[in-house]
Amino acid sequence: MNKQHQVILSLGSNQGNRLENIEQCIDLLHKEVGTIVKVSSLYESDSWGFESDSFYNCAVLVHTHKNSQKILKSILKAEKNLGRIRNESGKYQARIIDIDIIAFDDEIVESDLLQVPHKFLHERLFVLLPMKEIVSDWMHPIFQKSISDLISNCDDKGKCLKISPLQSPLNKIKLDTFNYIAVEGNIGAGKTTLVSKIAEDFNAKTVLERFADNPFLPKFYKDQNRYAFPLEMSFLADRYQQISDDLAQFDLFKDFIVADYHIFKSLIFAKVTLAEDEYRLYKTLFDIIYKEMPKPDLYIYLYQNTERLLQNIKRRGRSYEQEIPAEYLEKINNGYLDYIKTQKDLNVLIIDVSELDFLKNQEDYVYILDEIQKKIN
């Protein structure tokens, strides 16, 4: 999965309850536009370019998979939802809320509707000072100057005072209460996508399964009876080795770790694919290994119905997966759910994602984070 874009937005308000407008804007952007991972302090500044009441301002850092044009469309919609009525004359005016795209990764965007980096950012302390709090190492891609340099060279003599801290939406979600979270799901359920997003947003360490390296996998999908046992044994050995190696790099008492699998998935798949006598031998070996494995503080199972799984598998286009039958996926789903019921010592959260798209829809991603937060509360 491609990394998320990093977008810097500047928020301002000088009508009505300015603090409430800013706070509502932050919540709305986080729920509908992208994950707000950092929020600056609140600043009060003189109006810029026209005579009016002073503004409250802040800057936010957003993670998103949307491109710059979609971000622009989304923030215009957010402004409208928050009550802003734009002046078609193009002149500066007092406003309930103002959202500007200041930077989009290190890209330079020039169009009729959007210019990034924002063409006036270097002239405005109410943009630069909040920015420095959340992206102190940012470099202007055109001027090749740091935030500190831009502030030093800024001619803005207007008032710009820090008022108070603002709360980031992610600070309300204490995922790092858990040191080790494992996310599981059937083939195509989206577990790696979710783990990657959580890791980027919460600055977590990742353990990702090396599925593509297994030489038996394409052979298995062509001849399951012949290659089931060597496939499952090689997966078990590889998962044991990888988890042991990867977790050894981290401190399970200090680091926040998210993994896109847990080793007991080996037993789930083996029970579906192996003959009875092979499975008995396999389980004997598995039980020995499983005793040595660290157990996750939270085990998340992403349930997705078979129809959606098949659609996702087709969409991601791995040639050796295209002939997977629906019956096989249903057996895997049932195997997971049956096995989870027997785990008395495992902290389990089952989330039905059959109607969710947490890659494209920010609301769906926030819903999942909220479900995880409930397990903490």
Write up this protein:
The chain is elongated and about 85 Å long. The chain has helices spanning 18-32, 68-81, 125-134, 147-152, 191-202, 216-222, 224-248, 265-273, 276-292, 306-316, 326-341, 362-376; strands at residues 5-13, 35-39, 42-45, 55-64, 98-104, 109-110, 115-116, 160-164, 180-185, 205-207, 257-259, 298-303, 348-352. The strands form 3 sheets. Strands 1, 2, 3, 4, 5 and 8 form a 6-stranded antiparallel beta sheet that branches. It starts with a strand and ends with a helix. Helix content is 42%, strand content 18%. It has 377 residues and is an alpha/beta fold. Strand 6 and strand 7 (115-116) form a beta hairpin. It contains 12 helices and 13 strands.
List the helices and strands and how they pair.
Layout: E1 5-13, H1 18-32, E2 35-39, E3 42-45, E4 55-64, H2 68-81, E5 98-104, E6 109-110, E7 115-116, H3 125-134, H4 147-152, E8 160-164, E9 180-185, H5 191-202, E10 205-207, H6 216-222, H7 224-248, E11 257-259, H8 265-273, H9 276-292, E12 298-303, H10 306-316, H11 326-341, E13 348-352, H12 362-376
Parallel strand pairs: 9-11, 9-12, 10-11, 12-13
Antiparallel strand pairs: 1-4, 1-5, 2-4, 3-4, 3-8, 6-7
